[in-house]
Structure formats: structure tokens, C-alpha cells
Amino acid sequence: MKTTTKLAIAGLSLAFATGAYAASASDNWDNNCAKCHGADGTGSTKIGKKLKLKDYTDAAVQTNLKDDEMVKAIKEGVSEGGKEKMKAFKDDLPDAEITDLVAYIRKMKK
Ligand code: HEC
Questions:
Q1: Atom 29 (ligand 1): residue with closest C-alpha?
Q2: pLDDT level of residue 16 (50, 70, 90 thresholds)
Q3: Distance 106 CA to ligand 1 centre (A)
Q4: DSSP code, position 85
Q5: Residue that wins the pLDDT comparison between 60 and 1
Q6: Statement: residue 20 has pLDDT above 80
Q7: What total of structural domains would you count in the chain?
Q8: Which of 4, 13, 51, 74 has the highest CB neighbour number within 10 Å of its CB?
Q9: What is the b/e burial string over 70-97, where b = at least 16 CB atoms within 10 angstroms of the residue's CB?
Q10: Percent of the chain scored above 70 by pLDDT?
Q11: What is the pLDDT of residue 24?
């Protein structure tokens, strides 16, 4: 393989690697969370209503949510009666992106 080709491939995989790491909270939200919690965080999606999700634009809901509980829910997922309601994201998202998502949810408060 020619050196230029090798360099091009190395550059490409680096771009992918850094691109994945730098996923913004809004991209992560839209790709992983919005189908249940809604793009706006109100949980007014079809699945969201079925799961009776909290409305993250509601100030009272925000007050009752603790940051560490939110981080834990995103990392470990949420189960009820042994049934998984929300999957764990710790293998998909680095810690820094999980913290960013919590900050993103905080900004949904009206
Ligand atoms: C399959 C649907 C589904 C997806 C996808 C999903 N969630 Fe959840 N999430 C739930 C359910 C169900 C609960 C627990 C019920 C509740 O109390 O709202 C929950 C709870 C939470 C909580 C704990 C606070 C709370 O409302 O009790 C946070 C924070 C949260 N989700 C954030 C996220 C983030 C961030 C993502 C994307 C990385 C995500 N969720 C993806 C269904 C989902």
C-alpha cells in the first residue's frame, strides 16, 4: 500500500473517532432519546405517553429531579418490576456526553 493511501485511511478513521467523541448533546438527544422523551422533552410521543414519561419542560418536574439520579438513569437505564423501560446508555455514550445530556435536559425547563 502506498504511504499516501495509508495516511488518507489513518486520517479518515481519526476523523470518525473524533467525530463520534464530539457528538453534541442535541445530536445525542435527537438520535437516542427523542423517540421516547420527545424532541422537546415533553414526552408527548406515542411511546412517551404509553410509558407515562415526565415532562422535562415542567419546572416542578425539574425541581424533583436530581442530577445524580439523571446521570444514573442514563448510565444504568430504568427498569420496573424487572422489565426494562429505558436501556442503559453507558456503553454507547462517554461520561462527558451523559453529563452534557443532563445539562441539555435542564435547559428544557420553561
Ligand atoms: C425506550 C424509551 C426511552 C428512551 C429511548 C430513553 N428514555 Fe429516558 N426514560 C424512559 C423511561 C420509561 C423512564 C422512566 C419513567 C419516567 O419516570 O419518566 C426514563 C427516565 C429517564 C430519566 C430519569 C428521570 C425521570 O424522568 O425519571 C432521564 C434523565 C432520562 N430518562 C434521560 C434519557 C436520555 C438522556 C435518553 C437518551 C440518551 C433517554 N432517556 C432515552 C424511556 C426512555
A1: 70
A2: low
A3: 14
A4: E
A5: 60
A6: no
A7: 1
A8: 74
A9: bbebbeeeeeeeeeeebebbeeebeeeb
A10: 80
A11: 96
Nearest residue by C-alpha to atom 14 in ligand 1: 78
Which pLDDT score, from 0 to 100, does residue 90 have? 97
Residue 82, in any domain of the structure: yes
Distances 42 to 30, 45, 67, 84, 100 between C-alpha atoms, Å: 13, 8, 18, 21, 18
Contacts 24+ apart (CB under 8 A), 51-60: 51/85, 56/105, 56/108, 56/109, 57/108, 57/109, 57/110, 58/109, 58/110, 59/109, 59/110
Does any domain span residue 85? Answer: yes
